[in-house]
Amino acid sequence: VNFVALDGRHSEFAPPGLLSDGVPTAVIYAAKDEAQYVIRGPVTAPTLKKLVVDFTDRVLDRHLNSVGPDSITLGSSDSLVAELSSRGFRKLMLDTTRDAVVLFYASWCGFCKAIYHHFFATARFFRGFKGLIFARVDAFKNDLPWEFTVQQYPTIIFFSRKKADSVQYSGYITTTRLVRFVLRHLRHEVARQLVNTLCDSRLCLLRSLRKLQVWRLRCSRLNLPPSRLAETHRREKTLRNMLLSRLRRRGRS
User: Where is the signal peptide (predicted)?
Assistant: First the structure.
């Protein structure tokens, strides 16, 4: 371990926010792990010794930069999209009650700003749906767990409520494409709300039934894992029963 004294106010190596109050601190930079470990409490000989010993014994928690609110809060644009910090992102990943569509962006990224309106328009389309949240995180200012780091900005990822099952959006970003992307991966409990919201006329119901048949036929030709295939069949059965029920009610009215 090499000991170096730096003026954090003029050093690009100082973790953001650590020296905002002017109080000295100590940080271990682990080049191999690309991680930072920050001392807890004031800088004294005993605390410095403990910092080095704990680092050597690998019992320290990595310091993660977190800019913004710690909770999952809704921000601007009529509260359509939640603005996440590093801590808020980790809380969202532990939330098993809802699916999440997350935009990873950087404040300096011009293309990110160019696609914001598509992301917010998609969030507006699904506004009020239970079990689904749209969020964004500045992945340049906030340190994220390594398994959630992205290679480019912007990146849009759909996380199911289990969060381990994630799908990254690919292709040209438009509102229509994003809506289709979300619909393709929604749980059937959430997708069922769309049927109640959009489909009411007899013609719409018949078209939806036809599309559902085509969708099931395509899925049957794919080499899906048994669990994924069973989930697909459950989703198709739920939506089909709902469409038929609404069609019968329309016939009686």
Answer: none
The CA-based angle 115-81-152, given to 5 degrees, is 45
Instruction: Please provide residue 131's backbone torsions phi and psi, each rounded to the nearest 5 degrees.
Output: 85, 15
Q: Is residue 168 domain-resident?
A: yes
Q: Are residues 127 and 217 in the same domain?
A: no
Inside any domain, residue 213: yes
Cα-Cα-Cα-Cα dihedral sign, residues 181, 81, 235, 224: positive
Record the pTM. Answer: 0.63
Residue 76 lies in a domain: no
Which range marks the domain in which residue 26 is found? 11-57
Instruction: Sort residue 154 into left (φ over 0), alpha (ψ -120 to 50) or beta.
Output: beta
Per-residue pLDDT reduced to its tens digit, 203-237: 777 777 787 778 777 777 777 778 777 877 777 77
163 and 109 in contact (C-beta within 8 Å)? Answer: no
